[in-house]
Design brief:
With 286 residues, this protein is of the alpha+beta class. Helices cover 34% and strands 20% of the residues.
Length: 286
């Protein structure tokens, strides 16, 4: 009986303080009404479409990492000081989680890549790529900006230090000029769908971009020593009007495709045309 009264007193005390009464509720739980915008989903699809041109597997969407990305975008929008010593991978500690000044606080025992695990149910480390601009309408320009930064480009394309890693989760957020991309090696925990804010539609977390999975046939016109060389050539050909040109990587080889097709017959016909301008052009299929 004494235990009952002790529990009752404790219950009333917590109630008077406005404490949550739901037993077992965790701050890491993703709200049931959490959603991403259509533009955020377009960014996710754009990144996987770009990866497909590099013959890389699409990355599944993660509700956990999208939630973390949203929390961080909100924190940056409210509290980030661009003139301070901390860059955009930092957290103020005023909205969620502990404060973290990057790179000042970065250490083996205090890793900013553990933030996703700290504030959500994501089970491992996750890496973030950031962007801020006066407008976030042009997603292609944002991806191009990231591809001009070696660290970001290598992460997105699984090259250099990331070549032996596999991304199993992706999170995105776009808010008040901040565009955030989160990548993790662990699969997300719980939930198989995420809601689109504008429509209420629930979409699966596995990539549904058919272009990312369909076999393609590429007209190859050149090979290069590095991806940066291939991308430089890609930029030059785009300026000449070849809108479908793409830099590809496969098995450590870097190639330039002037065009691509979904069937071998289409590619064979196009090859005859392109061989008139690019002698030695050939077809590569993934």
């Amino acid at each position: 009986m004494k235990r009952f009264y002790l529990f009752l007193v404790l219950f009333l005390f917590l109630f008077s303080l406005g404490a949550p009464l739901v037993m077992g509720q965790s701050s890491k739980t993703i709200p049931q009404d959490f959603c991403i915008s259509q533009k955020e989903y377009q960014l996710y699809s754009l990144i996987n479409t770009y990866r497909s041109k590099l013959m890389l597997d699409p990355i599944p969407l993660s509700a956990s990492l999208c939630y973390v990305a949203h929390l961080h975008a909100s924190d940056l929008a409210k509290h980030y000081n661009p003139k301070g010593d901390c860059n955009m991978r930092s957290w103020s500690g005023k909205t969620t989680g502990k404060a973290f000044c990057y790179p000042k606080d970065q250490a083996k025992k205090k890793d900013v890549n553990d933030k996703a695990k700290e504030i959500s149910n994501y089970p491992g480390k996750a890496w973030e790529i950031t962007y801020w601009g006066n407008t976030n309408d042009d997603l292609q320009s944002i991806l191009a900006f990231w591809n001009d930064i070696p660290y970001a480009a290598d992460m997105i394309s699984n090259s250099q230090k990331w070549k032996d890693d596999k991304w199993n989760s992706m999170g995105v957020a776009i808010q008040e000029g901040y565009v955030l991309l989160w990548l993790g090696k662990k699969e997300t925990i719980g939930g198989s769908q995420i809601m689109i804010c504008e429509t209420g539609e629930k979409i699966g977390l596995s990539p549904k971009d058919t272009d990312a999975k369909a076999k393609k046939y590429y007209i190859i016109i050149g090979s290069y020593k590095s991806m940066s060389d291939a991308q430089s050539a890609q930029k030059s050909y785009k300026e000449m009007g070849y809108s479908r040109v793409a830099a590809l990587e496969s098995g450590g080889r870097f190639r330039l495709s002037i065009d691509s097709f979904s069937s071998s017959n289409e590619a064979d016909k196009a090859l005859k045309k392109y061989n008139k301008k690019f002698q030695g052009a050939w077809i590569f299929s993934n």
